[in-house]
Design a protein that fits this description.
Elements lengths: L4 E4 L2 E5 L10 E4 L2 H9 L6 H18 L5 H13 L6 H16 L5 H31 L6 E5 L14 H10 L4 E6 L6 H12 L4 E4 L4 H6 L3 E6 L3 E3 L4 E4 L2 H10 L4 E4 L5 E2 L16 H4 E2 L2 E2 L12 E4 L6 E4 L2 E3 L3 H9 L1
Parallel strand pairs: 4-5, 4-7, 5-6, 7-10, 8-11, 10-15
Antiparallel strand pairs: 1-2, 2-3, 8-9, 9-14, 12-13, 15-16
The structure holds 5-S-methyl-1-O-phosphono-5-thio-D-ribulose.
């Protein structure tokens, strides 16, 4: 399995997702500022992986912080990491978890604080892999045998500490003996589907076909797609799902064609403080991601551009939300609260 993010010799090592699939190279972050930059520049991306990176970033910051005025330094470290990307709630969840541990260590010796913070970040990573495996187990039964699964963006090992959420469900279905192949939307503009999903599924020898985003309707109508499985960046209390832009269109097309549309995500992606998806902050990214493909200009100079990185799929299009604690079904206000406990 691909190593998305590791802690090696007091540094954070990530596979560079901006270089895949043409180059398999690794970036070493030795400071929390470098981790923040890696998240912002999408060297690492995907909600759970961003959470793991943030936890490791906080640990790295504490490790290198001076002993004087540590509280203020921790505030700065956390604020810097929190300012990287606004939509994936796992970022804020992980920073919150690290902050709470730090607060609980009040009065402890600096060496003890450093040790416990690093341990916690490593635990976030280990737990993420176990959570993805549980999501896979809970979702495998929902995947129809001898059918194609359509997915959007990359919600795989590369978007987590390993195994993946949506791709974890596909992996688990195959491990349970089902014959499944995958259609991957290319996912304009950043091409996570073409560059990352196809690459990681090829590593596992899972048969995968690349389609452009605007082909999804054609194939959903064909009867070939047994279900859609995608990940999520933030899920509101009513079951509205923020995920990579384009997910909403796929969900509407799936419903129109009676194809089940599943969302696979850890409990840490739920944001029950938000009543609906309308309150989810949507990241706006640089125009150059739309006007250029891999550095090559495609649109006339001066073109007006919109580049929302995510959209919100209303809960009525979601057939089920697959988590490590089970599958939530509508009405989501009730089922999600029950899962959180
Ligand atoms: O902008 P990205 O690549 O970070 O967006 C990623 C997605 O939208 C994923 O589908 C989502 O984070 C789920 S990852 C398990």
């Amino acid at each position: 399995m691909v190593e998305t993010i590791q802690w090696i010799d007091n540094a954070v090592v990530m596979i560079d997702q901006t270089k895949l699939p043409l180059e398999e190279t690794y970036v070493t972050c030795r400071t929390y500022e470098e981790v923040a930059r890696a998240i912002r520049d999408m060297i690492i991306r995907g909600a759970p992986a961003i959470g793991v990176a943030a936890a490791m970033g906080v640990a790295l910051g504490v490790l290198h912080a001076g002993e004087r005025d540590l509280d203020r330094q921790v505030e700065t470290i956390c604020a810097t990491l929190a300012a990287t990307r606004p939509t994936a709630v796992n970022l804020f969840w992980a920073i919150g978890r690290m902050k709470r541990l730090y607060a609980s260590l009040h009065g402890a010796a600096p060496a003890e604080i450093r040790r416990r913070m690093v341990e916690e970040a490593l635990r976030v990573r280990e737990e993420d892999i176990a959570i993805c495996r549980a999501i896979g187990r809970n979702g495998a039964a929902l995947v129809p045998d001898h059918k194609t699964v359509l997915t959007h963006c990359n919600a795989g090992a590369l978007a987590t500490a390993g195994y993946g959420t949506a791709l974890g469900v596909i992996r688990a279905a195959i491990e349970s003996g089902k014959t499944v192949d995958v259609f991957a939307d290319e996912t304009r503009p950043f091409l996570q589907g073409a560059r990352l999903t196809v690459w990681e599924l090829q590593q596992d020898h899972i048969p995968t076909t690349l389609i452009t985003d605007n082909m999804a309707g054609h194939f959903l109508k064909s009867g070939r797609i047994g279900c859609v499985v995608v990940g999520a960046d933030r899920i509101a209390a009513n079951g509205d799902v923020a995920n990579k832009v384009g997910t909403y269109s796929v969900a509407v097309l799936a419903k129109e064609n009676n194809v089940p549309f599943f969302v696979a995500a850890p409990i840490s992606t739920l944001d029950l403080t938000l009543a609906s998806g309308d309150a989810i902050p949507i990241e706006q990214r640089a125009a150059v991601e739309v006007t250029h493909v891999q550095g090559r200009q495609m649109a006339p100079t001066g073109t007006a551009v919109q580049n929302p990185a995510f959209d919100v799929t209303p809960a009525r299009y979601v057939s089920g939300i697959i988590t490590e604690r089970g599958v939530a079904r509508a009405p989501y206000e009730e089922s999600l609260r029950k899962l959180v406990g």
